[in-house]
Amino acid sequence: MRNESALGPLLALTRLPTTLDTRGAEPKAQAPVAAPAVTVEHVEKTFRLPHRRYSTLKERALHPFSSSSYDELRAVDDVSFEVAKGEFFGIVGRNGSGKSTLLKCLAGIYNADAGSVHVHGRLSPFIELGVGFNPELTARDNVLVNAIMLGLTRKQAKARFDDIIAFAELEEFIDLPLKNYSSGMTVRLAFAVTVEVDADILLIDEVLAVGDAAFQQKCYEQFEQLKRENRTIVLVTHDMSAVERFCDRAMLVDRGRMRQIGGPHEIALAYNELNFGRLIEGAPAADGRYGDQAAAEIRAAWFEDDAGERIKELPQGSPCTICMEVRFHQAMDEPIFGFHVRNEPRHTVFATSSDWNARQIGSFAAGDSAQVRVRIDNYWLAPNRYTVSPSVARAGMGADVVDLREDLASIVVHGTRVSGGLADLPHQLTVERR
C-alpha cells in the first residue's frame, strides 16, 4: 500500500494529450485532471480465527498435539472505489460488515492482503477511541504528541494547543492523566486534535456516537466548516440522517463486499432495507418502492385543501392536508404511519410519524383499509415544488418498513414573494433609529 503524504513531493496533476481543432485553430490543451484523493483497487483483508487459543506456555505444553486449525474471515472482499478531492464520502453497513476494517486499510493500520490503496495528501484518522493516546500522560502531553505525529511541527502544535482544548471543552482537565477521563472526554479530545492538524483527508469512524448530543452537534458544525474548506472526508456511520445531511455520495457494504454506491438518500434507504433482510441484489424497484408489501401496501397518496378536494397546487399561506390510503393484507398491531416531505433540491422540510404521539393506533385485520391524514397550516412553506413519501412500518422503532413509496404525490406552492429560504418562518422585522 502506498501513502503519498503531503510531507513528500506534491503529486503532479496529470495533463491529457493535446487535441487539434479541425477548423485550423491553435492546438488546445485539455484542463488538468486532479487525481482522486483516495483510490481503492480490489482490496482484500482476511483474518484467521483459531479454533483454540493458548494464552500461556503451560497450556501449550499440556496440549502439544492439539490442532492449530482455524477459520478464515474475509472482512474486506474485492472492494474498489474512488473518493474525489473535496468529497464527503460515507461508508455504511451493518455491524460486522467490514466497513471499519476497510477504513483501517485506508489509514494504514492494516496492510491489505491484496489490492492497493493510494492516498494523495496528508491523512488524519479518527478511527478508534483512544488510539494513539497514552493513558498515563496528561491531556496536555497527549495533545502535543499526537499533533506532532499527525504532521504538525512542535511549534505549530503548541500554537494550536489552546484551540484544541477549547474545542474539546476540557480547560479544567488539561493536567489530568487520560486514564481518569471518561470515554466522552477522550473522544472530544481526540476529535479536537484530528480537525486541527490541517489534514487534506480525514477518516472518521462511528466513535462520535460516544459523545453527548451537544458535542455531536458541535462536530456536525465542524463537518460543515470542513466541507467549505474543500477537505476530503470519509465517514463510517450508522446514522443515516448524517449521511443524507453531509455526504455527496455513499457506499453500502455487507459481508465485506460493496453492495451499492450512489447518492446519500438512495444508500440510506438501501441500508434500511438491508438491515431488515429485504434487500434484493441491486437497486430498489424502478418506481422507488421499498418493502415487500406482504402485510400492507400503500395504495395512494395526495394533497387536499380544506374543502377535501385533491389538489396539485396551493397558494402560499393556505392550509392543506397530506393523505395516504393503506390496504392491509395481514393482521397488524399498532402499525406506524409516516410522511416525509421534500422540496425540489431534495431537502427534507417536514417529517412526521404516528409513533411520535402517545395515541394508540390500534389493530387492523387482513382486508382492512385506513386513510391517514396530516393537516398543516402551510404558513412556513416557501414557494417550491414538494413531494411526499408515505410509509407504513411494523410496530417498534419504525425502521421495519412494510411499504415505502418515494415521491408518490407532489404539490406546487406558489406565491408572489420568494425569499430564497428553505422555509418562510413567521417573523417580525423592526428598525429603530438611534
Q: Any idea of the CATH class of the domain at 289-414?
A: Mainly Beta
The CATH homology group name of the domain at 289-414:
abc- transporter (atp binding component) like domain
- What is the mean pLDDT? 81
| CATH topology annotation of the domain at 289-414 | Coagulation Factor XIII, Chain A, domain 1
Structural class: alpha/beta
> Can you summarize the main beta sheet?
7 strands, mixed
The total strand number stands at: 23
Q: Can you name the CATH architecture of the domain at 289-414?
A: Distorted Sandwich
Strand content: 25-35%
- For the termini, the CA-CA separation is 66 Å
Rg calculated over all Cα atoms:
27 Å
Net shape: globular
Runs with pLDDT <50, length 5+?
A: 1-32, 277-283
Task: Show the helix and strand layout.
Blueprint: E1 2-4, E2 38-50, H1 57-62, E3 70-83, E4 88-92, H2 99-107, E5 114-120, E6 123-126, H3 139-149, H4 154-159, H5 161-168, H6 183-195, E7 201-204, H7 213-228, E8 232-236, H8 240-246, E9 249-254, E10 257-262, H9 264-275, E11 289-290, E12 296-304, E13 310-311, E14 313-315, E15 320-328, E16 332-333, E17 336-342, E18 348-353, E19 363-364, E20 369-376, E21 384-393, E22 401-405, E23 409-414
Parallel strand pairs: 1-5, 4-8, 4-9, 6-7, 7-8, 14-23
Antiparallel strand pairs: 2-3, 2-5, 9-10, 11-22, 12-13, 12-15, 15-20, 16-19, 17-18, 17-21, 21-22, 21-23
Main attributes?
single chain; 434 residues; alpha/beta; Rossmann fold; Coagulation Factor XIII, Chain A, domain 1; 7-stranded mixed sheet; 6-stranded mixed sheet; 9 helices; 20% helix; globular; disordered N terminus
